[in-house]
Amino acid sequence: MDSSQSRRGGLVSVSPSQTPRSSDKSSRDLRSGDSNSSSKRDKEKGVNVQVILRCRPLNEDELKVNVPVVISCNESRREVTAAQNIANKQIDRTFHFDKVFGPTSQQRDLYHAAVSPIVYEVLEGYNCTIFAYGQTGTGKTYTMEGAARKKNGEFSSDAGVIPRAVKQIFDILEAQNAEYNMKVTFLELYNEEITDLLAPEETSKFIDDKSKKPIALMEDGKGSVFVRGLEEEIVCTANEIYQILEKGSAKRRTAETLLNKQSSRSHSIFSITIHIKEYTPEGEEMIKCGKLNLVDLAGSENISRSGAKESRAREAGEINKSLLMLGRVINALVEHSGHIPYRDSKLTRLLRDSLGGKTKTCIIATISPSTHSLEETLSTLDYAHRAKNIKNKPEINQKMMKSAMIKDLYSEIDRLKQEVYAAREKNGIYIPRDRYLQEEAEKKAMAEKIERMELDSESKDKQLIEIQELYNSQLHLTADLSDKLEKTEKKLKETENSLSDLEEKHRQANATIKEKEFLISNLLKSEKKLVERAFELRTELENAASDVSSLFAKIERKDKIEDGNRALVEKFQSQLNQQLDILHKTVSNSVTHQEQQLKDMEDDMQSFVSTKSEVTSKQGVNRVL
């Protein structure tokens, strides 16, 4: 990065200087009109903080020991269900969020669904905040920063919200051929101390934290909070921001715990401020400003489970304390309390505008599916579910005429010149009168604060005496408790023996259950086959019944035909009998008549024969004669 690019503060155009095309101007004016109307609606009604829930998969250690999973995610219904075992009864608790991403979700899925629209709102002139919250080891830093870039500089598929947002911002600005100026800040909040992660290291480097420069948190009198003396890096390309991120992230405080080998021990806020040049219909130049705050909160943790000791335990205590203050602010906002305790911690002061202020805010809550983390997971789910009810009143930042901005810059230059002149004229360090009066007022406020702290110290001394007396009484109580402890330990040993017996019985019961489950499984398979066979037989029986019905119909038709034929046969038989009777009578009469005729013929023949014989005899007689 050359000297012109590494300048801090100020406004200079670092993009191509071509005049935007008319189509670009009209599209930007249209979006500006839409955003203005949306801003009015948001200001009147308020906008709920968007809450996204992401559940990480089981890690390698959890998979090795087969840790039970107690969290289930339904992305389509945007639900998360936690299974609790209370008094040997499973009780499921279901939480609804704006978006839910399960263990198999990818970085790009979360970004395109939840974060990408926020980047567009930043470029429309809104201040937006995205911050990750959750137990240590649930993937907050992975979600926000992701994996490192590849050696060839290509974009990694595991890249997190910050690098993807940076890439999207530059892609949109370059596609619009816009003139813009961009600057970034990167700070760390550790043990209630703010450190600039972009501050140049001193020539004489000290060990660890001494090389980091603590800076003050100030209020501008309008309800907003700013960090005095924070370094602003002007950037021109996405690669410059990636390098700044890597440099700042390397300075963040991390440590290994039992829950996370690379646990972030501080809160970090990475801010991107963008000034974009636009043109009014009259051709005047306007400057539109948007800001994106990307916050990676340190992980809340159970000190007994994380293995933190001594300084790490105190460190974890400070982290949990700041997150507790954040939770109180959220509760106060949800309950519409008259007093919101922003001033109880520096974290809540830094996030003041993001919680109940004029900023559009998105919370990414990260959880673990493991049963070992169920208590912390439920705490995170409750926290995130309450945060859904916070209403912000986002306002689009006021656009400035370029001439007005130049005037402000000239005023700033004049102020700096006065300071330089005052310092140059004297041997010591001198500042202008206005600056001196301001610092005197700050000193007075600090003196009052010290006085209050001294009074607090006196009351703390009194409390210490009371605590000492309480400690002495506790010593006597401890002796009694030691005796009870010995008795309890004996009972514990007996209970452990009983427990081992119960565990053996439990193991045997599990074996019996598995055998029964195996038998039930086989019975279910047999039942399934029998049901399938029954369905086949039923189909065959239905077909057979249909055939029988057809057969009975045929038999019925056949019976009708046979009845008809039988009637015809009987009729024919009757007629035949009548005819036979007639024929019999006719034949009988004919036989009688023929017999009579035969008899007559025989009589005639006999008479003829007798006559002939007589004649013959007569003829013989005649011959003889």
Question: Main traits of this protein?
Answer:
about 625 residues; Kinesin; 3 domains; 12 helices; about 55% helix; about 15% strand; disordered N terminus
Description of the structure:
It is a single chain. With 625 residues, the protein is α+β, with helices and mostly antiparallel strands. The protein folds into three domains: 47-201 and 213-400, Kinesin motor domain (Kinesin), CATH 3.40.850; 431-521; 554-584. Helices cover 55% and strands 17% of the residues. It is built from twelve helices and 20 strands. The protein has helices at residues 22-45, 60-64, 107-123, 140-144, 161-175, 238-251, 303-306, 311-334, 346-350, 374-387, 402-425, 433-624; strands spanning 47-48, 50-55, 71-74, 79-86, 89-96, 99-101, 127-134, 180-190, 193-196, 214-215, 217-219, 225-227, 233-235, 254-255, 263-264, 267-279, 285-296, 360-367, 391-392, 400-401. The strands form five sheets. Strands 2, 6, 7, 8, 9, 10, 13, 16, 17, 18 and 20 form an eleven-stranded mixed β-sheet that branches. The termini are far apart. Mean pLDDT is 79; it is low at 1-35, 203-213, 255-263 and 303-310.
In short:
The chain is α+β, with helices and mostly antiparallel strands.
